[in-house]
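Holo prediction. Input below; ligand is 5-amino-5-deoxy-1-O-phosphono-D-mannitol.
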Amino acid sequence: MCGIVGYIGDKQAIPFLLDGMSKLEYRGYDSAGVAVYNKGKICIEKCVGRLEALKQKLKGNMPEGTMGIGHTRWATHGRPSDVNSHPHADSSGEFVVVHNGIIENYLGLKQDLQAKGHTFLSETDTEVVAHLMSEYYTGDFEDTVKKVLGMIEGSYSLVFMCAKEPGKLICTKKSNPLVIGLGNGENFIASDIPAIIAKTRRTFIMSDGEIATVTKDNVWVQDINGTPISKKIFEVNWNAEAAEKGGFEHFMLKEIYEQPKAMRDTMLGRLAKTNDAVVFSELNWTPEELKGINKIFIVACGTAYHAGVVGKYYIEQMARISVEVDIASEFRYRLPIIDGNCLCIVISQSGETIDTLEALKEAKRLGARTLAVTNVVGSSIAREADQVVYTYAGPEIAVASTKAYTTQLLIMLLLSMYIAQLRNTVTVDRLQELIVGIREIPEQIHKMLENVEQIKIFATKYGSSEDAFFLGRSLDYAVALEGALKLKEISYIHAEAYAAGELKHGTLALIVEGVPVIVLATQPDVYEKTISNLQEVKARDAVVIGIGMEGDKKLAQHADHVIYIPKTDKYLAPLEAVLPLQLLAYYAALTRGCDVDKPRNLAKSVTVE
Ligand code: M6R
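Structure of the complex:
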């Protein structure tokens, strides 16, 4: 999510740090900062805003030093502000750290440290790490890092500086990227290759649990027990643009492949270790408060709206509260019947979509309680809503939303489980079953992404079609909506999603020989009926691509082709079934030579009505 750089050598650190950070800024960040060691002290300069704001701040006041770290922040804990920007230090300023990721247990650690007399300046989880370093300093920098790593839980890449032991940077990672660049008499650290390729192409990638001690002439890697690890050095041969995309041809594809991580980050800290409860520490609802809510409105646009449609099924089926889903631009003008007994949930990746923001204001004006589900901390929607739940998808650059959607689905599922748990409409056994399944999702998605050849073939074969249809019932219908939008948006193929049972009420007239029809059949409760609808289109000579769960032989008998998702719970199927639809859209767009990341007429953030 955030960008990290580190330098140690004979040259001034700041020019490299700023240059490296600018190479990471393409993802869009909200604040930036640097820390440089000089003559026994670490000087920190940081501020909210783009990197340019930091550059202006440093103009004529460039801290000197040949060892430093830098950070571009994408806020997770604590809104974007000067004080929440990284690097963070302990109270003495001797231990400084930059961090990418989420420290899951930071609140407990912070309270312990406060009880020991530590004072915190920021709202971040990261500041806790710097204070832990000073509290538990053993007289040995490396040992202390290991000790602190034993205390923190979550996902991170971290780079540490210690004024007591200059001449070395220590870095480590868990579930977040970190690379080391090797130079002559200088070495580099970065969260992403683009930050260092102007300086060196000799790199190695850090693996989870590894701790690297980086001096100007040496890099020493070990595990937490001190066992040395030898790393394979490789030469990066990508150009700068390819490096920004992590070697992927497009940001969209990169973001599709980031989904396992986005899911892991989003579920982090929200599933009880005992697997029997969902935890939303950011929500302070009580069962009594929830009893007062007799209706939920979900309001959003585009892909986020489609996540809302899935959310309706989840909440109604699990929490047994009636839900209406509205397109934000319609909501405001339809005189919705909404009051203090209603909860309005708005969903927005960017947190800046004007239609959604205005709908949120309207719901508030009418007295409803409001909750935002968004990916951008401190965004307008996050600020406007009474409560916020963040998706931790990381910056999404491609116009076509992918990882934001799947994390929104995950949040909607977790929210419905949470509400159901408070309202006593779900058994502990069922919660456990779902939580165990949710934990498996990132790995299952990862496996699906390793095997996309079949999807590429279908995309090439049917990419020249001018129309396509997506059918499904229940949750499959909700996912079909997103599949059709993805295909339209980037390949410009006319695509429609229909509730499978609705087709015969008019649209069946459009089903002619050779038209591709994607039929989702993952929902056991409506499976037989979906197969009947499949047969209706088959009888009109459509080409049917079925999407079903592994082992579904019946689907294979009826469809022309089948794409299987791993066997999973019916509520988890949407999180997996959308993967082949995203990839079909992506490869169809490639076949047609479309500009995948910047489709015609569209913008990433829609701030006009
Ligand atoms: O940032 P938001 O989630 O509020 O954006 C809403 C839509 O504009 C967005 O999802 C749009 O539909 C995407 N381009 C779809 O891929």
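The chain has three domains: 2-244, 253-447, 451-591. That is the main takeaway for now.
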